[in-house]
Task: structure prediction
Amino acid sequence: MKRIVSIAALVLALTLILSATALADGFRTLDEIKESGKITIGLFHDKKPFGYVDENGEFQGYDVYLARRLAEDLGVELEIVAVDAPNRIEFLQSFKVDVILANFTYTAERAEQVDFALPYMKVALGVVSPDGALITDVEQLKGKKLIVSKGTTAETFFEQNYPEVQLVKYDSYTDAYLGLLDGRGDALSTDNTEVLAWAIENPGFTVGIESLGSLDTINPAVSKGNETLLSWINEELVKLGEENFFHADYEATLRETYGENADADALVVEGGVV
Result:
């Protein structure tokens, strides 16, 4: 009887070890994605014009345009999972998605937790505020309330560089902009590409600070260690650059917002080369 119990205990221990290993390597490889016939990509649902849901309930935007092309070239269906800024890393670490394309800025800190592919867009921070109390210099924010979304580079930048600025934090971009509209903050900061687009669609607000901090890049991200999927995405981005895919993406999804005189080269990255 003792021998039987010991064998049962050993089998249970091995099962737990194998389960833990499976969880640790729970991402889906490129071949597994192909075999399943579906790729799962995390996208914003409320960050127009990069990832949002239109009046017909369909996902649209610059990131969505890329997501559809990745699925098409991989020969699989696209399953979109709506994400918010604070849960992008968690969704990769818990294997809820294969890829994040939610306007994800590369940072060294994030690169310790996920693997970034080549860039496809350039970005810095911007600050938008009401015309009646326009913020044109970061020094004007001292002692005032600045709205940011949790888990964003804006949150990190101001916490590290301007601790005297009072941050009002929201989980979603929708709530953050509603906070600005309702006067719960003096200004709002996020990617300059987004605040410039938002100000165009919301008269009475202006981006007084158009570029703040360093020039960063937006990159696809996959779960840490998913080398097969990462390599394929990098090769795909290089190929797409050869056909000027992202300029076409810009014209299809961003031109109407930014206007005819806007310079696509100020934002677009082709072939992963900044």
